[in-house]
Amino acid sequence: QRCGPKPLLPPEAEDAIQDWIIGRQIVRHPVGRVEIMKKATEISELIAGRSVTDGWYKRFMQRHPDLTERMAQTLSKPRNTVDFADTRMLFNSLAKVIIETGTSADQVFNVDETAFYKVAKSKRVIAVRRSKNVWTTTPTTSFHMTIIACGSAAGFIVPPVFILPGKTVSLDILKGAEVDGAGITSTPSGFEHGVVRGMAVIFLRRRSR
């Protein structure tokens, strides 16, 4: 027989809270102590007419050993939406084009852009014990810098291009750059726009001749 006071919430309610916690982890929106306390209070006010306490939370975690505290790893919304089917379709499409056109390694270039946002703070959340990774989706911030990198399958590397937010940018910023030939430009938002990618396409066409 269990010692101590009777739990404020019935087992069915606590099991429902545990299922909710696990569900939020699955969709990569894990919850922490504050969110769990809020959810439990909503239920307890309906059942018992009062809020749960810190003591309830501690005992709740003890009664549900499958849950544990973890540090969530941040993941942007675009990356959060990619799944295995998307990756396989991209690979098959690229392989088909390369085979049909007989493209050589020095004609295959990979152009990618990476945005550096303001540092997103990691937070402690509750997750299923022994989970390999605990991800959380981060909202898009207002300021960021973009870097465009490009390289060929043959090993040729195009110097990077830095994109800063604003209408103009001083070229003196690159005086301390350690990479020869690096470029810099600006767009109103700091995002890569069609005009910038168009410049890259022109360069690649000249390179592949």
UniProtKB/TrEMBL annotation:
<dbReference type="InterPro" id="IPR050863">
    <property type="entry name" value="CenT-Element_Derived"/>
</dbReference>
<keyword id="KW-0238">DNA-binding</keyword>
<dbReference type="GO" id="GO:0005634">
    <property type="term" value="C:nucleus"/>
</dbReference>
<protein>
    <recommendedName>
        <fullName>HTH CENPB-type domain-containing protein</fullName>
    </recommendedName>
</protein>
<feature type="domain" description="HTH CENPB-type">
    <location>
        <begin position="1"/>
        <end position="70"/>
    </location>
</feature>
<dbReference type="Pfam" id="PF03221">
    <property type="entry name" value="HTH_Tnp_Tc5"/>
</dbReference>
<dbReference type="InterPro" id="IPR006600">
    <property type="entry name" value="HTH_CenpB_DNA-bd_dom"/>
</dbReference>
<dbReference type="GO" id="GO:0003677">
    <property type="term" value="F:DNA binding"/>
</dbReference>
